[in-house]
Amino acid sequence: MKSYFKTLHGKFVILTLVAVAAVCVVPKMFAQDVPVDDSAVVVAEEVIAVADAPKCCAAGEEGVSPVEDLALSLDTVWMLLAAMLVFFMQPGFALVEAGFTRTKNTANILMKNLVDFSVGSLLFFFIGFGFMFGSGGAGFIGAPNFFDLSFFDMGLPIEGFLVFQTVFCATAATIVSGAMAERTKFSMYIAYSILISAFVYPVSGHWTWGGGWLSEMGFHDFAGSTIVHSVGGWIALVGAAVLGPRLGKYGKDKKSKAIPGHNLTIATLGVFILWFGWFGFNPGSQLAASGDSKVAISHVFLTTNLAAAAGGIFSLITAWLKYKKPSLSLTLNGVLAGLVGITAGCDAVSPVGAIIIGVVCGIVMVFSVEFIDRVLKIDDPVGASSVHGVCGFVGTILTGLLALDGGLFYGGGWSMVVTQLIGAVVIGAWAAGAGFVIFKGIDLIFGLRVEKRVEEEGLDIYEHGEAAYN
């Protein structure tokens, strides 16, 4: 027996027994009654007091107390969490677009949504962030940063703010994909995604969130109805027009023919993901969760959800009355229309105002889809230009009417309405004009559209050499 305990195995057994005994006995030996005081209450009161105070210094700076650092850390974590939620909208967009289009192009659609985020992340870090936030908001466009982030200071970690802004940039770029689906060359898609991410979106962002001239006018777009969604929507509309309709979309009599999507199940899942991600998109734009911001983000959560629900319900009712059937595809887009519409004024309108915005956008979206398809003869397979372009515009204007502070219906006069109208029109014109130059230039030089045979048989095999379904 003695020889056994001298072996490695024996020593391990002894060590284990000693450890178990220590775990069982030592806590009892040192256990004692601890007098309860109210120190926790004191600390909690101190945290609340600091959180409610203005935060003018970044965490870690000299003179910042641990409690102040805690409040700033909380704000940072909230900003990064919101960025993750907005990033999760990318697969949402991918599923909606794939579900609304045909099987033979699914791999191409998924690839585009993957690549535009990757390309946008690199380019926005390289120069886009500087174009948007550089030069203190002065001029037409900011100065390129060339991977340097030291020029910008906002009190929170700049790296986190870059990531937060990157996911917004990627959203604007990916909106375009849906309207131009099933007939665009993949290489040309990458080309125009580069230009949107690195130039078009940062310019309009510079005028607004970058502190530029529209911001100085008082233009209010809290989370991007116009700055993000309308920019993507108007570019999408112009791109679809330059590209032309899909083969078989319009007959010889020029009447529109429905081309059903292959999977409304994944489209529905995509909309639920987008709805979920929007709780980062809108509340996250507060960029803080401590102090009074806890009330602000709670309010934005509520208005965002109410507008989405109202948009879905009233697009369903409108479609049911108009087409005699409660259309799932239009209801899904109605939810998105309500979300896009409320994004500008989610912080500024009341819960009832949010419902009104959702109702209006849900109804407008149904008529807009029909107008663009049957009157303008522009083929938008997923309704991106109606949901994001038109409803982004409408939501921005409605903010001028319904804002509790300065809105026309609350005694603020016409000033805010006019400012909102100027901002929405100017940014829309910029996006559409820049998009036309980009798409027309690419089409003339390289050709924007795939060959007829490729479109007929599907982009998956010809463009990527693989299919999503086997």
Task: Reconstruct the topology from this structure.
Layout: H1 2-6, H2 8-30, H3 39-52, H4 66-87, H5 89-100, H6 106-133, H7 158-179, H8 186-207, H9 213-217, H10 225-243, H11 264-281, H12 293-323, H13 328-342, H14 351-375, H15 384-402, H16 415-445, H17 452-457, H18 459-464
Helix pairs in contact: 3-4, 4-7, 4-11, 5-6, 5-7, 5-11, 6-7, 6-8, 7-8, 7-10, 8-10, 8-16, 10-15, 10-16, 11-13, 12-13, 12-14, 13-14, 13-15, 14-15, 15-16
Which fold name fills CATH's third level, the topology?
A: Ammonium transporter fold
User: Helical percent range?
Assistant: 55-70%
Structural class: mainly alpha
DSSP summary: helix tally: 18
How would a crystallographer describe the biggest sheet? none
CATH architecture identity: Orthogonal Bundle
Give the tally of structural domains: 1
Overall morphology: globular
The ordered string of helix (H) and strand (E) elements is HHHHHHHHHHHHHHHHHH
What is the CATH first-level class name?
Mainly Alpha
Overall mean pLDDT: 89
The total beta strand count reads 0
